[in-house]
Amino acid sequence: MSKKLIHGLFDDDDILMNGVKAVRQKGYEIDEIYTPFPVHGLDKAMGLKPTRIAYASFVYGAFGLGFAIWLTWFMMIEDWPQNIGGKPSFTWLENMPAFTPILFELTIFMAAHLMVLTYFFRNKLFPGKKGGSPDLRTTDDKFLMEFIYEGDSSELESLLKETGAVEVNVKEIKDTKGNQLWFKIPTASLVLLFALSSCSSSDEPQRDPNSVFMPDMYYSIAYEPYSEDPNGINNMEARTPVEGTIKRGYVPYGVPDSNEGYQFALDSLKSPLVSDEKSEKVGEDLYNIYCISCHGINGDGQGKLVQNEKYLGVPSYAVSRLPNITEGSIFHVITYGKNMMGSHASQLTSQERWKVSKHVLKLRSQLK
After folding, report:
1. Looking at the domain assignment, is residue 97 inside a domain?
2. Residues 100 and 93 sit within 8 Å (Cβ to Cβ)
3. Any residues with CB less than 8 A from the CB of 256 and at least 6 apart, and which?
4. Does the reported pTM lie above 0.70?
5. Neighbours of 132 (CB within 10 A)
6. pLDDT (tens digit per residue) in 170-187
7. How many domains does the chain have?
């Protein structure tokens, strides 16, 4: 027995609602209703279950949060701890306030994007799909009730007319079994489109967008920092400081970065600071921020980066490993760096470097 597609057309939303209730009371199942605007309460009248997309959104958000927690822990704590802006990298919980933007953004990103994709998939919406309204008048001022019915439909047709339908149309449904390319072809086309859009006809990186909607906001009228400036010195926008000037709070370090300079610091440099409990605590805190990832919490050269084999050959502060280091030589190395260790003069002030040097000596005294 062939199936029939039955359309009941209404010209008023109140009449439609009454018709829906009457049809439902008779036990008929409504397959779809097309309206030119949302009709309040129609979903309940049709007997539709509440949407579960909110549950999906929660699951996607929880997945995004879990992924963000794992990502920040693995990248910043476990695999390659990094000192960024003086933030500690001991445990994930201590770093959690710094990771809050990442946790928030990935939670929202996963919940929003996966929920939209779920909505499209659930409703079989894909690029290039044509509108599914069977009667264009439903985009203007008419309301259409659709049934897919098998058997004698005369009773249903009469019921639709009794409930106020201005028009009832019936047609046979053709067998479309085997037509499964509706999804595959558009999906493949979309993937190909993305692949082609990522290609460039030039070997040079494309730094400017193809279309700019607000060029006066995108392109600065003023010269960009470090850009060419025909009116500037050496045709550059940036200016070098006046010779002999130093920034506020900066203490010049006149010992050169050379073997002779290192030897001078080893033999002669002494800390100008008075050592007390407060300064020692500051030195310990700074060491735990800037030095612990390589040198280890005990100064034994077994920090997280060494254990993960990101860096090798970091020495222990023990006398047996470094017999000839002093407060001055430690300060010199922190200032200029040595071997694989880079300079920390941009992160630590002169006083802070002396405090860290003091803490290194303290760790050295505790190592065998």
Report:
1. no
2. no
3. none
4. no
5. 10
6. 988 776 554 555 555 666
7. 1
